[in-house]
Amino acid sequence: MYAARAVSVSVRGKTLLDGVDLRLDPGRVVAVVGPNGAGKSTLLKVMAGERRPDEGRVELDGRPLAECPAAYLATRRAVLPQSIDVVFPFLVSEVVSLGMPPSLTARECNLLVERALDAVELAHLGARIYGTLSGGEKQRTQLARVLAQVWSRECTYLLLDEPTSSLDLAHQLVILRLARAHAASGGGVLMILHDLNLASMAADEIVALKGGSRIASGRPSVVVTDDLIAALYGVRAEVRGVPEGPFLLPQTAQLPD
Amino acid sequence: MSAMKKSRILICFLLAFAWLPSAAAEPRTVSGRDGRTIEIHDTSRIVTIGGAVTEIVFALGHGGDVIAVDQTSTYPAAVKSKPNVGYMRALSAEGVISVAPTLILATEGSGPPDVIDILSGAAIPFVVVPEGYDEQAVLRKIELIAHVLDEEERGKAMTDAITEDFRALQEIRDRIEKKRKAVFVFAVGGGTPTVGGSETSVDGVFALGGIDNAMKAMSGYKPAVGEAVLAAAPDVVVTMIERNHGLDAETMFALPAFTGTPAARARRLVPISSYYLNFGPRTAHAARDLAASVYPELNLPALPARAWTSVEDAGGK
Amino acid sequence: MSSAASLPVARSRSMRRGTTSIAVSGVLLLIAIVASLAIGPVLIAPLDVVGIFGHALAGTRPLDGVAMRDAVVILDIRLPRTVLTVLVGAALAAGGAVLQGVFRNPLADPALVGVSTSAAFAAVLWIVFGYAAVAWLPSLVAGFALPLAAFLGSLISTILLYRIATHEGRTSVAMLLFTGIAIGALAAAGTGLVIFVASDQQLREFTFWTLGSAGGANWQKIAIALPFFLALFAGSLRLSRGLDALALGEAEAFHVGIDTQFLKRASIVLVAAGVGAAVSVSGVIGFIGLVIPHLLRLSAGPMHRPLILGCILLGGALLTASDIVARTIAAPAEVPVGVVTAILGAPYFLYLVHRNRTALGG
Asked: Which domains does chain C possess?
């Protein structure tokens, strides 16, 4: 069980999170949506243990997160950050290997790195220097690293902060597929997503945040309504409406197998 | 055997015995650091460290034995062509060994101590010549070096002459009715002059020259607060010409530290050579020359020229 | 697209580059050591050098004459000096690598950011004010206080540097350098002040501290500084995994299970120990901690295990080679070795700055 209970975070008088609950169960994908500044990243950081809430707490496996040492947490949850720049000239394969436990042999490590890069379709870039990659390629490298961590340590939980932001459609779908696969094998996935379409496709539960508060949660079909969108974004939109001109729904896209 | 032949043999024998002591002469000994005794066997290859030491060795006739000097040794001219072992406090052990010396004569304060230990361990006698800033210091240096070089007679002649010089110097000082105040400027760094206070060689030379050290309230060579210099109201500013090229009267008296001082008003800047401060054999002459520059109106008599004062200078470094 | 073909290439490229670089560094170190024992102002034939070592191993030494002098040069001057330059060079390079890892900044050289200067300041303070307090102890024990004082000096300055220059886990180059310059200037001023106040006899020369020198090498100094060096070498190798992870950022390092607080603290302590001891025995020597890690990152890669190993070997090689130049180029006088490393390192630093100009905002 992995849950945040009534967590609040404020910085210099500004409230980032206000009494938010979040529960992440194995076998389920939870998507967190909301406008900019809603507190999504902060919530993920609190769940990850990176940030202590000012009020409330997070529990993992029955223990308060604050009492869990970093090494233990790394065996239970893996975190994909929004973006990572690395100052030194690491190779892509070296970056991917950075999450793995010290007990692995070089051969085991190599195999996992290979598998992870394959999964994100970056196998051909293993020998490149990370700093020379495009934004999307860097993001996928980080995802490969997170996957390698998950596989090598058998983490139950996967926390992804905007994993699709720099990716093209095909790769966005790859990410969603990976997330669902992880859930299907018994893991729990928490994803912050900007795109409501993608959230609707992949999540078992959508949690909507605005201004630091949780304003809605539930199954996508229940949560994604015209009223919610108006409340979240201040925009009038039609769920299920058909616009003039061409439109493409990721829901109808399919990856080649 | 005839009596004549016998006496000849006897005379030869006696003569042989007369020579024997010097041939089998005991090595000279000097006490070294930590009370150890240093034995001097061979003075044919000497490294001299310190301007005074170098001058004394040359004056005692052993200039030809000097194979290397330090960077403060600039006199006599012959030293210009000798290898330079650098700064006396930062000697290189292997560097000194590489010139294959049989003796090192070094002014007190040479080092670092580890290097001295290594040189002693390499059986190279390292004789420390004590430093001091008065007449006695000069005489002691000569006596010690003369003893080491086995030139006691020449040494005595030198010390006698120099003692005379110092006495003449005393008489010269007696002619000075009212002492003038001088400040010695070692260097100027960013507008602040580094000056010589008490317990320095320049203080000693001033005393010998019948000059008051305007900065005697402080000790050592230190940067002086401008106001302190002003308050001391020096009549004369003394500086070393070799060190401070371009530090002419113009520049010196433009410094705020000197504005309005008697020295500035009269634009009295007295240049000196570095040997004035090394407390070597030319000290008395240096002090006299300094006094003559500071009290030009007194027409102070010159000291008699000596063998070691007339050799050409090697020129400033 | 065959992934199987490219990955092993990638991985083995990474491993291969590490191993080759370390091997090359090791060879260079050996060459430097041999050269340092054989070259110097005193000309000694190579066969004689070997002979002297042979005798020394058998426990004998020539007692007089040229042979004795040569033995002194080899065994009492060049040998301890070489050991010292190897250790100090290794410590400065490894210390630089770790410092750069902690600050995530390739320009963090201990001398550049005031760490070395602070060590010198502390050492000078100790010599002038504290020495008398332990003078009654046997000299080997009392001698420990000096690198200890230097260690404290580096430690305080590195902590200060970290506190001021790092904000929310990120250190900008500008903050790092400016803070480092400020700390260095403060320490230099302090050193100047202490020297001003002290009598000459208490201090080794100011230039020793500011420009560095391996001239005073002896076995006692080496023995005293050795534990500090070994702590840095062993400790930093153990921290290499953590430093690798730290390259992703503090948050990420935490996410993959690294105790970042401990990592940073331990790294800072180790760097302070190694650099402090190095400064206490040979003064401030710059650029080794900058140039060597940078060269090795390009050849061995930035993974810290091979990097630090390479730094230990190549840092020792470079400083030893610099020292050979320092003691022969102006013989019989000696140039401070820090001058030689500066002549080699400063242009390289300028080149680094030029190459990174966009990252530095130029």
From this structure: 16-360 (1.10.3470.10)
Domain identity same for B122 and B218: no
| Distance, CA of B215 to CA of B202 (rounded, Å) | 11
Task: Look at residue A102 and tell me if it is in a domain.
Answer: yes
Q: Is residue B160 part of a domain?
A: no
> Cβ of C6 and A126 within 8 Å?
yes
How would you classify the pairing of strands C166-167 and C170-171?
Answer: antiparallel
Distance from CA of C244 to the nearest CA of B (A): 42
Closest CA to B238 of B176, B293, B282, B283: B293
CA dist B54 → A180, B99, B129, C54 (Å) = 91, 16, 11, 40
Q: CATH code at B101? A: 3.40.50.1980
- Look at residue A148 and tell me if it is in a domain: yes
| Chain C positions touching chain B (beta carbons under 8 Å) | 40-43, 64, 68-69, 72-73, 76-78, 196, 200-201, 204-205, 207-208, 213, 215-218, 327, 330-334, 336
- 3 state DSSP class of C297: helix
Residues 91-150 of A with CB under 8 A from C: 91-95, 98-99, 101-102, 106, 110, 113-114, 117-118, 123-124, 126-127, 149
A111 domain residue, yes or no: yes
Within 8 A of C1 by CB-CB distance, chain A residues are 123-124
Q: Which of C187, C20, C334 is nearest to B93 (CA)?
A: C334
What is the Cα–Cα distance from A207 to A238, expressed in whole angstroms? 20
**Interface contact B130, partner C, CB < 8 A:** no
- How far C106 CA lies from chain A's nearest CA (Å)? 8
Query: C252 to chain A nearest CA, in Å?
Result: 8
pLDDT at A47 over 50: yes
Closest residue, chain B, to C198 (C-alpha): B220
Instruction: Kindly state whether residues B36 and B114 are assigned to the same domain.
Output: yes
The owner of tokens 């000082």 is: B173
pLDDT in tens, C184-218: 999 989 988 887 777 655 555 666 777 888 887 88
- CB contact under 8 Å between C196 and B222, yes or no, is yes
* DSSP SS3 for C170: strand
Which residues, numbered 89 to 108 in chain B, qualify as contacts with chain C under a Cβ-Cβ cut-off of 8 Å?
Answer: 89-100
Mean pLDDT over the full length of chain C: 86
C-alpha span between A206 and A81 (Å, rounded)? 20
How does pLDDT run across C35-92, given as a tens digit for each residue?
A: 999 998 888 888 888 888 888 888 887 777 778 888 888 888 899 999 999 999 999 9
Rounded Cα–Cα distance for residues A171 and A178 (Å): 11
Identify whether A151 is part of a domain: yes
Helix (H, G, I), strand (E, B) or coil at B114: helix
Distance from CA of C62 to the nearest CA of B (A): 11
Q: Examine residue B144 and state whether it is found in any structural domain, yes or no.
A: no
Domain that holds residue A143: 84-155
Tens-binned pLDDT, residue by residue, of chain B (317 aa): 566 666 676 665 555 555 544 444 567 888 776 677 888 888 899 999 999 999 999 999 999 999 999 988 988 989 999 999 988 888 889 999 999 999 999 998 888 888 888 888 888 889 999 999 999 999 999 999 999 999 999 999 999 999 999 999 999 999 999 999 999 988 877 677 888 889 999 999 999 999 999 999 888 888 788 788 888 889 999 998 776 666 778 888 888 888 888 998 888 999 898 888 899 999 999 999 999 999 999 888 899 888 888 755 544 33
Neighbours of chain C (3+ CB pairs under 8 A): A, B
pLDDT on residue C146: 85
